[in-house]
């Protein structure tokens, strides 16, 4: 889910593991020469197609299968069953779980909302996040691992490392 800390935690986890870190949103922006917000201007379906293309190109890169890579995806990538299947086939999928109250606290600034096209409307942030969480609940439940993202980053990384080692 947006605001859960995927990029921050992913970078820290990759550094700990000596792995490469990939932020899928940054890859999308490079591939399509536009910001996420600009891609959303052509509709969410168009953005999701761009997201799918970026994910597939990453997973198809020579040497990817044998590499140590931590990928931070956008929170909506899992709504596409093909993406879920591809990610599960490529490695371990983790859901950084954060309750709505914590998401609201992290995403309540205008800057945070401006970076996230699905939050740009001025509807209640809590209602919108709750709606997204409900709509994506079954997709998030398909993750192999669930980790509480409320603690500080270092604690989340340690919990992730323990879960991955188990």
TrEMBL record:
Coiled coil: none annotated. SUPFAM superfamilies: P-loop containing nucleoside triphosphate hydrolases. Gene3D superfamilies: P-loop containing nucleotide triphosphate hydrolases. GO terms for cellular component: cytosol. ATP binds at residues 3-8, 116. Its EC number is 2.7.1.71. One of its GO terms (molecular function) is ATP binding. Its cofactor is Mg(2+). Keywords: Amino-acid biosynthesis, Aromatic amino acid biosynthesis, ATP-binding, Cytoplasm, Kinase, Magnesium, Metal-binding, Nucleotide-binding, Transferase. Belongs to the shikimate kinase family. Catalyzes the specific phosphorylation of the 3-hydroxyl group of shikimic acid using ATP as a cosubstrate. This is Shikimate kinase. The lineage of its organism: Bacteria, Pseudomonadati, Myxococcota, Polyangia, Nannocystales.
């Amino acid at each position: 889910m947006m605001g859960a800390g995927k990029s921050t935690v992913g970078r820290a986890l990759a550094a700990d593991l000596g792995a490469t870190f990939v932020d899928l949103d940054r890859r999308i922006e490079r591939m399509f020469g536009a910001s996420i917000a600009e891609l959303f201007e052509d509709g969410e379906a168009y953005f999701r197609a761009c997201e799918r293309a970026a994910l597939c190109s990453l997973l198809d890169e020579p040497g990817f299968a044998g590499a140590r890579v931590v990928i931070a995806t956008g929170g909506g990538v899992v709504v596409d069953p093909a993406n879920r299947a591809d990610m599960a086939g490529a490695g371990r999928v983790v859901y950084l779980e954060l309750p709505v109250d914590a998401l609201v606290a992290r995403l309540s600034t205008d800057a945070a909302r401006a970076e996230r096209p699905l939050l740009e409307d001025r509807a209640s942030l809590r209602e919108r996040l709750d709606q997204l969480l409900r709509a994506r609940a079954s997709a998030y439940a398909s993750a192999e691992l669930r980790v509480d993202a409320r603690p500080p980053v270092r604690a989340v990384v340690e919990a992730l490392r323990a879960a991955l080692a188990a």
